[in-house]
Amino acid sequence: MVPSQPFLHAAVFTLSVLQALASDTFIAAVYEHAVILPDATDEPVSPDDALALMNKNMDVLEGAIKEATQQGAHIIVTPEDGIYGWRFTRETIYPYLEDIPDPTVNWIPCTDPTRFAPAPVQERLSCMARNNSIYVVANIGDKKPCNSSDPSCPSDGRYQYNTDVVFDPEGKLVARYHKYNLFRRETQFNYPKEPEAVTFETPFGKFGIFTCFDILFREPAVVLVSELQVDSVLFPTAWMNVLPFLTAVEIHSAWAMGMGVNLLSANTHNISLAMTGSGLFTPEGPAAYHYDSRTEDGRLLLAELRAHPRLSPTYPPAVNWSLYATSIEKFPGEEDTFSAAVRRDIFTFSELKCKAGNYTVCQGDLCCHLVYQMSNESKDEVYVLGAFDGLHGSLIKYHWQICTLLKCKSTDLNTCGQPVETAQTKFEMFSLSGTFGTNYVFPEVLYSGVELALGEFEVLRDGRLKSKHGTSKPLLTATLFGRLYEKDLPHPLRTSP
Question: Which bin fits 260, alpha (ψ -120 to 50), beta or left (φ > 0)?
């Protein structure tokens, strides 16, 4: 007797759940997608044309999902804007939007596509998950009607949200998240009235989800980890790399380490906009990552991750980020400082004039201490120790505290803080610490060629970021990136707090 399709699917789903339950690990996948963009237009396209463009992107994503499934993946994350791109006004994105219900409706779009308004994108994503018995994470647009009874209702009678959705291996919608911290150019979308802390349980841990710019703010990112205790975070992003501190793989890996969770980060791929850099990041460092600023190709990444990283015997201990730095006398160097801009942020810098030494640089309430020894000193390279304690951002202003050892773009000190991707100088050792006024500090080490220093540094319980041995490659920056969320200014673009 040949089993029916529903029976076969149920058997495959049950087997995949049992396999996940039988282990304290799972196979995670992310896909960095070179998005097929729509033609620029001032007028909305027809719904059919919008769906045709989205199906072209979903064709590519479906291929990645099938490949991930063949390699044993339990969950796959696809990027923000991965289905339709980002070239939109409020009016021109409308044909691409669907009404996405609350997951409490218990809906499998693949098997019940007519239960709500037509939703061909949700139906197809649901079928991708169901047909491959895998959790599928995607980013699409949600539309919600409103009227004059709502004083915040936009004049066109609808809210439009940048939205993440998650479908489980049966194809059921299990999570919906509306992006809370919109990047300032996302004028096609509305801000949700309140931050949403979205979580869901799986056989391999508790998951949270947020999007791109959200990672730099307290809500919902910190809330999910510190208060709701998620094990892993799903992170669709369209991240434009900004050296020296905010390249995708650098800051996202640092966030996973600083927060002590897994971060499944899927970036879009568009080298003309400096968009690349995806990874499977853990509290102990990257399990896999990808950075490619040369080709136009997408990339699938997979890695085995711990389902409950806090229970791991190698889980990093709690850090008192200011303990060491507040216990020592200041090193020399504080008097011989200069100012230079990292983008628009004015840092206080001190040049490292010797092959080895101890330095202190202070700004505001932050003092940064560095002990270092270079392996080789290149005469055409200058390194500095820098400190920044203040508000970052021209419109949305949020408070950073940063201690950084970085390479200047040239020997001209005015170039210190400008983007640079290559270096020649290696270090025998470095130890960086700061008198941080926050527990939210993210450790970054970036090598020449925008490569992560896999397993080559550690954070001690007293807050020191130290090289374990000599750096295997020339150093671009070693940075402690701190966030004082309580000092952020009120958001200027939200209609409600």
Answer: left
Please name which of 158, 119, 109 lies closest in space to residue 140, comparing C-alpha atoms: 119
Q: Are 243 and 237 in contact (CB under 8 A)?
A: no
196 belongs to the catalytic site: no
Q: Tally Cβ neighbours within 10 Å of residue 253.
A: 30
Task: Please name the residues in contact with 75: beta carbons below 8 A apart, sequence gap of 6 or more.
Answer: 26, 28, 29, 134, 135, 136, 137, 202, 234, 264
CB contact at 8 A, 426 and 416: no
Give me 19's structure tokens.
């396999």
Mean pLDDT, rounded, for 146-173: 97
pLDDT tens for each residue of 61-84: 999 999 999 999 999 999 999 999
Rounded mean pLDDT of 264-269? 98
pTM greater than 0.90: yes
The Cβ of residue 323 has, within 10 Å, a number of other Cβ atoms equal to 16
Nearest to 137, CA basis, from 191, 195, 186, 176: 176
Q: Check 80, 98, 186, 196 and give the catalytic one.
A: 80
Range with the lowest mean pLDDT among 40-49, 363-372, 374-383, 395-404?
374-383
Cα 80 from Cα 162, distance rounded (Å)? 9
Average pLDDT score over residue span 120-136: 98
Instruction: Name the active-site residue from 172, 179, 407, 426.
Output: 179
172 is catalytic: no
For 127, list phi and psi in degrees, rounded to 5: -70, -35
Q: How far is CA 215 from CA 105, 185, 375, 491, in A?
A: 29, 17, 35, 16
Mark whether 212 is an active-site residue.
yes
